[in-house]
Specification:
- With 77 residues, this protein is mostly helical.
- It has a domain of 47 residues.
- The chain has two helices and no strands.
- Helix 1 runs antiparallel to helix 2.
- The model has no long low-confidence stretch (mean pLDDT 84).
Length: 77
């Protein structure tokens, strides 16, 4: 008879390894979610800021109307 030891030490080691891999996977998923939401939030703000800078350059006369319209179209698409 085996006595109920199952896989012995290997069962415990594999169980620990399994949970460590699960935790590492969760950390990567959470990190990815945080980065993707912060990038999406920053893109909206930076696009607004870019348009403001473009308007300021046009107002100062650094670019003409055709350049302004082209750049504005690029920013919106």
């Amino acid at each position: 008879m085996m006595g109920g030891w199952g896989m012995g030490w290997f069962g415990g080691i594999f169980m620990i390894l399994f949970w460590v891999l699960i935790l590492i996977g969760l950390v990567f998923v959470i990190k990815w979610l945080i980065q993707s939401t912060s990038k999406a939030r920053n893109n909206g703000q930076s696009g607004y800021r870019a348009l403001e800078i473009l308007k300021e350059r046009y107002a100062r006369g650094e670019i003409d109307k055709a350049q302004f319209e082209d750049m504005k179209r690029d920013l919106k698409h």
